[in-house]
Structure formats: C-alpha cells, structure tokens
Amino acid sequence: MDLPAAKRKVHFLLGLCLLFQVFAYLSAESTCKLKAKFNLYGYKNIEKKKVIVGGMFPVHFRLASSNSSTSSVPQSSDCEGFNFRTFRWLQTMRFAINEINNREDILPNTDLGYVIYDSCFTISKAVEGTLTYLTGQDEAVPNYRCSSGAPLAALIGAGASDLSIATARILGLYYFPQVSYASSCSVLESKFQFPSFLRTIPNDVHQSQAMARLVLHFGWTWVATIASDDDYGKYGIKVFKEQVEEAGVCISFSETLPKVYSRESVLRIVEAIKKSTANIIVVFSSDVDFSPLTEELVAHNITNKTWIASEAWITSALISKPEYNSALGGTIGFAIRRADIPGLKSYLLNLDPYEDRLTEEFWEKAFNCTLGYTRTVRSLNTSALSSNDTDTRIHNMDPVADHFCTGLESLERINNTYSDVSELRLTYSVYKSVYTVAHALHNLEHCEPGKGPFPMNSCADINNFEPWQLMYYLKNLRFTTHTNEDIFFDDNGDVKAEYDIINWQEKPDGSVSYVQIGHYNSTAPAESRMTINNDSIVWNNNILQAPRSVCSESCLPGTRKGIRQGEPVCCFDCIPCADGEISNETDARECIQCGEDYWSNTKRDACVPKEIEFLDFSEALGITLISISAFGACITIAVAIIFLVHRNTALVKANDRTLSFFLLLSLVITFLSSIVFIGRPQHWSCMTSQVALALGFAMCLSCIMGKTVVLMLRARAAKAKSQEQANGDPIKPIHQKSIALVCTLIQVCACTVWLILLPPYPVKNTASQNIKIILECNIGSIIFICCIFAYDILLALLGFICAFIARKMPDNFNEAKFVTFGMLVFFIVWISFVPAYLSTRGKFMVAVQIFAILASSFGLLACIFIPKCYIILIKPERNTEELVRGKSQKNDTSAPGTSVSISSELNNTTISTVSVDD
Fold first, then answer.
1. pTM for this structure?
2. Between these two residues, 616 and 181, which has the higher pLDDT value?
C-alpha cells in the first residue's frame, strides 16, 4: 500500500473516532442535567493562584421565607438577618490569606486563593456551599471535579457544630481536609464518622467539665439547663449533666431552644424559669438561638437568675446588649483564648463597599442606607405600597438623600461588632485555622524528594496533590503562633483546651464589659485546672456575694437528709437524729450510732461520755444515809452498853440476855451493812453488802424467833388451871440459843454456796437509762437471792406468829407485845419497799433499799429495846424481879399490858415463877 493511501485511511479513522465522541457528548447532554441552581453569596479570589482554600461562614442568621408552591420552578432561598460578628470572621480569613501571601517564611513560592460562601446558619446552605466548592463551579455536580486550575486545599468552617457535621459527612467521603474554627461539639471527635475533620477550637467535653467544676466551686446543687436544639447544645448539656449529677447536683428543669423561632416554645421556657427555684441556669447554645429568649426575659422582668454561658454566646454582641443587663447582668461563661491580631483592624476598616453583594449588604446595614439610586427608589416604593399611601409613594421618589449611600462613608466612625477587635476569640480561631492549612501546605511543598511520607518515600506535588496527602501533614502538624501558642492536633483532631472565665460587668455608660475572673486549662493537674478569683465577680443586680441555688438548705450537724418521695435527691427535709445518734457533718445522709458508753449531746452533733451514776459517798444523799446508818449503829451500841451495865437486873436477864446481845449485834450489822451499798460497786462490795444484809437479818430474826418460841410456850402454859402447869417450861435457855444458832447457820451455809457458785458482781447498766451508765451490782443468781431472802421472810413470819400468840401473857412486862409491834413494822417496811424498789432506777434504787434496811432496823430496835431502856434508865424502881415477873390476880387478861402499864401501880400482884437467864 502506498503512503498517501495509508495516511488517508488513518485520517478517516481519526475522523470517525471524533464523530463518535461528538455523538457520545450529545447523548450525555440529552440525559444529564442540573436539578437546581444554587443561590450562594460569598467571595472568590482564584485567578493566578496555586492553591485554593475554601471557607464557610454564617454571615446571615436564617433563610428568608420563600414560596412553597410546587407550581413553579423551585428557587434557592435567600438569606436574611445580617451578622456583623460573623462577617468579621469572614474578613479575618481573607486578611490571613493575604498576610500569608505577603510573607516570605510561609509558602514563599505559592499564592493562596480562596472561595468563601455564606452558610446562612442553616444546614441546607452549608451543604450547597460544600458541593459547589468541591465541584469547582457555581453548579454542584456531586462526585465530579468540573473545574481545572489550582487544586483545592481544605475547607475552613462551616461555623456552628451542626453545620460542620453536615459538611464533614460529605468531605469525609473524599478524605478532604476540614478545619473548623467554631464547631466544638464532642460528637465531631469520632474519626470513624468524620475522618478528615480537625478544629482549632477546644472540644466541648472540656467546656462541659469546666462548667461542672464552676457549679461545684460555688456549691450550687440546684441548677437548670437550656440547650439549643442541635448537636452542639444536646451533647454539651449531656456531658455537663453527667458530670454534675455524679457529684450530687440536681437538675431543676431542662429545656430546648427551637432552631426555628416559635414564640410559644420560648414562652414555655420563660414559664419554667419563673416557676423554678433554681437560681443558676446553664445555657449551651449559639447566640442566634438564644437571642429570642433574652428578649422575653427582659419583657417578663426576670432579673433574679445567674446565667452560665457557653463559649458560643459569652462574648457575642448579639446577646451582650445594654438593654439585656437587667436580666443577664453578672453572667459567667467560658470563652476561648483571646489574642490580638496585628493589622486586622486596619484591614477591616479599609473595605470597598462595591466589592461584592455581601460587602454591599454590610455597608447598607452598617450605615442604614441603600447603595444605588435605583435600589433606593425601589425600596421607597415598596414601603409606600405596603402602607397603601399613594401620595407618600409619589413624594418619596425624588428626595432620597436620607436613604442613599455614597460609598465614601467612614467605617471608623461607626461603633459595632464588626470593627470591635478588643475581644478576638473566635476571630482568632479563624486566624489560626487559616494558618494551620498554610503551615501544612508549606510542609507539603518543602518535602525533600526521597524522604517523603508517601509510598516509595515520595512527596506530594503542591501543584497537583490529593486531599488525603494534605491530611497527613495536617495531622502531624505542629507550629507556634505569633502569641507563642503551640498548635498541634491529638488523635481526635482536637487541640488542647484552654478557656478564659468571663464575667459580665456593667460599665458606667451601661455597656457590657467582659472581665476575666479566672482560667481553665484541661492539661493542668486535676486540682489546679480551674483558677477563679471570687472577689472580682459582680453578680446579677451588682451583688458582690455569690448567689445560693439549692432545692433545700443544707442539713446542719445533728440532722440527716430525709428524701422527699418523688423529688430529686437535692430536695430533702432535715430530720433530727434520734437519741443516741449523731451527725457531725453537713448534709449527712445517715446518723451515726454512738458507742455503748457514749450518748448524743443536745445538739446531736457529738457523742459524749454517758453520765456514770451510783450512790456516791460525797453526795448529799450518800452522806445522809451514812449518817443515819452510823447513828443507828451508835444507838444500838449504846443500848448494848446499857444492857451490859445492867446485865444483872431482872429486866435484862428476863428471856435470855445472851440472845438480847446477839440481837443487838445483828442490828449493828444491818445498820452498818447499809453503808456498804454506798459508793462505786466493786466485787468485794457487791458480795459483802448482800451477804451482810442477809446474815444480819437472819441472825436478828433467829434471835427473835428463839425469844418468841419461849414466850409462846409460856403463854400456852399460862392457860393451864394449876400452878404446876403454868410453871412448867419445856424449852430451856440452851434450847433458845440452839434455835438461834441453827437458824443462823442455815443462812450462813446458803450464803457460802451462793458466793462460791454465782457470786454478785458489778455491772454497767446501760439499758435502764439511755443517757446514763448505772453502776450496780448484779445479784449473780435470781434463784439464790430469792431463796436467801425468802428464808429471812420465813424466820420473820415464824417469829411474828410466836410473838402474836404470846402477846396476852399476863406478865407485867410482856416482851411478846413489843416483838409483835416490831415485826409489824418490819413487814410494813418491806412490803412498801417492793413497789418503791421496782419503780426506781440507779442510785435511787439503792437509796430505797438502804431506807428499807434502816427503817426495819430502827423499827425492831425501837419496838423491842426502847421500852426496856425506859424502865432501866427512867424507872429503875420497876426493874425488880418481883415486878417484872409479877402478875395481877385481878388483872383483866383481855387487856394485855403495854409499856404504859409498866408505869402504873402494881398492887395486889402475885409473883409467878418464870424462867430467867441462866
């Protein structure tokens, strides 16, 4: 084949291929079309730029209402509600890029361009801007890059957390870097959901923890929470609640601010605030979402609450207006780190009003005018039509000077948030975000060939790199800002958290001053993370003392918390501790039981030793009883001495004088045994007191029974008709002594067995009285003590019966009568003793027992021996054998003699033969 023919054939085939491509393109054009055209505001500077950085800022508050009819082509909504603060953020990004382009140390060979869109504080606009940015043209074609030229580096934005979440889900599909300056929501830390998201603002987890520490620092236990209805508010409040509830703080109410304005919802929140007793309200919201509520707070004159602010609104000029001071004055909040940006204010003030639609709108809002005559006339006509005033419309078409901007107005003369660079916090975060991307690009551009981080140690090309390659440099970036702040990202794409604690204080002119009162550093040790100067705080209504916010006042020591049924644990009643229980700390949940030897004081806040009670020698009652006992013993000894001196007289010898001396000895023992009951109980005193008492009365009653048995038999013999029967005495004196001795020995044996087997011992009685420890003697065995004293009672009964039978014996001095009276006194005393003894406790129980001993002893002594002493000492002439033994023939036996008969004249008596002492 010749060469020309071959060329013709090649040309034919190439033409055919080209024709197929044209047909394919036309076919594609017939099947692919845009569904809608986005209406976006923003700035572009991409001409002759090597790398493009994207930006997204919520310059407007919301979307404008649009026609929802489906009978016409849908239009992308416009935005309304211009925000000077966020417009300053946008201009700061432009300033930072221009500054970087003019520097020689960062990207000296690369000029950065930018594409910046307004997100209008809505997710839909944020998504529109993201798709448009990725596509590279005004129309969004998902998954295609339809623009040639400079590569895209990263997206700065998109503002609020819910906006960044929406954009991060799209950008994460392509591993496209996103560096946020304001999205602090904790959910964005998930690298599984948001693999390419980074931020220069701290994670809200730290802010929530800092808020919780602030609440605990001031001792507030009853707080309310309000959160915006988005991820920022929900997650921020969730972490805060977890922190404070774990520490015992209760939530009075939790409300949610609507994203779309609803006055009904806002008024519901106002009513909840009014009804709540919580004085502290924590608000996790953006300034835009919180703004409608602040207006209602002022309208309803709610001025007694203290507000805790999140960083999204603590320094916002939209909220910190002078007219809101009555409601929000004294607000405390956390703000991100503040810094100065040299040259920024000059840049902000040198703005061309005709540069872009956003700049034109800013100029009009700032100076309250309209740029352009045509627009002014249109605005006036619209106003006139709305008022249905034709004359006004006609007359207003010409004089438009008040509504027309020249474009030469000076921004230096206005005073609004845009030009205020005194509190550059989020603005500084925007500045850091731009520099973060620039430093990452700088490291990418200056990679040394053969030492790169990518496969085969390769480097990326600054003119044509992939997003994931820049993402590597961002993750491993570390640089220092002009304020000496060290910037680096952790594994979650977060920076270290540092907050300034801000307090709203009113200036003399009524404006709000942001006064720093403390600092929070998440990387510091736990005990020193938060520092705060309480004295520098001015609270709501210019009060210097920190407010209290509790559902119930703290329970003082001595009381415990009583939880109210169905209410939070912070709402409780303070219940006094029971007797014997204490609480020595504030807000005690339970009272502490005092030890066995301790009791609660009157305030129930301390355990004090119980009062130890026993009948002491030194107290008045003890001294009195000792004196009476000693007096009784002395009287008894005196009687014994009298009897001893007159031992040979007829009255002493009558009815066995030996038994009389033993009887007196036993009474001395009973008198003195009562003294052993006094004093602190000891082992020896417990045994001695009970045994001495038992033996003393046993000896006394045995002697009495020995005497009365003889008297009884003598009385029986007196009933006989013959003198021989009357003088017969079947019981001899030796028999009397034997009876007394045997009866006493029986008691001695019983007491010995008692002391050996189960002796009495001292005990601490804590059951009788709660506030006292009664020191007393435990009897050892109730059976033994009952048997021993029952035996004494048996002897007393036998002695009484014998004496009672012999009471009518016709002697001039009949001892049986006095023994009968003595035994009656004995029984009366001890019968009265039992109920009195059982109804008393402590030392008074011992005193009752001693009184019974003394009374019965004095009764026996007085009834048996006083009549005899009377005759011996006062009427010695009657102490003759004839008179003592004599018996009146004419005496009426139905009227037995008494002590009074002894002093009567004894006439016409006959001496009867009686048995006397051996």
1. 0.66
2. 181
